């Protein structure tokens, strides 16, 4: 077999198909925090559809559920835990000087 024909042959790698992140029984709802929290990054951002491996309809429903949960204060808009830890460990100065007598 010459090189030109060899390029068009499919490789024989075996791919394991991943399970979908949302099963048919899972209900996409703003109250289902265990499901919603899987689709939010550490900073509190909504992960993209490519990262989540969701269909377009599922991604839309997840986005709506996350936004509803944020409005109802079930989820924070921003997750600033790392920034809070840093600010607590380093004391801040107020800029006022104390005069020595």
From TrEMBL:
GO biological process terms, semicolon-separated: translation
Compartments it resides in: Plastid, Chloroplast
Coiled-coil boundaries: none
Entry keyword Transcription: no
HAMAP family, alphabetized: Ribosomal_bS18
GO molecular function: small ribosomal subunit rRNA binding; structural constituent of ribosome
This protein's name: Small ribosomal subunit protein bS18c
GO CC annotation, single: mitochondrial small ribosomal subunit
The entry's keywords: Chloroplast, Plastid, Ribonucleoprotein, Ribosomal protein, RNA-binding, rRNA-binding
Domain of life: Eukaryota
Record NCBIfam families: S18
Annotated Gene3D superfamilies: Ribosomal protein S18 (4.10.640.10)
Protein family membership: Belongs to the bacterial ribosomal protein bS18 family.
Pfam family, one: Ribosomal_S18
Assembly and interaction partners: Part of the 30S ribosomal subunit.
Span of the signal peptide: none
């Amino acid at each position: 077999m010459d090189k030109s024909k060899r390029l068009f042959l499919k490789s024989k790698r075996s791919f394991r198909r991943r399970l979908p992140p949302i099963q048919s029984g899972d209900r996409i709802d703003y109250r289902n925090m265990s499901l919603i929290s899987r689709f939010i990054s550490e900073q509190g951002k909504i992960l993209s559809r490519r990262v989540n491996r969701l269909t377009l309809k599922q991604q839309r429903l997840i986005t709506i559920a996350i936004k509803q949960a944020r409005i109802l204060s079930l989820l924070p808009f921003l997750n600033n835990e790392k920034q809070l830890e840093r600010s607590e460990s380093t004391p801040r100065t107020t800029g006022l000087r104390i005069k020595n007598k």
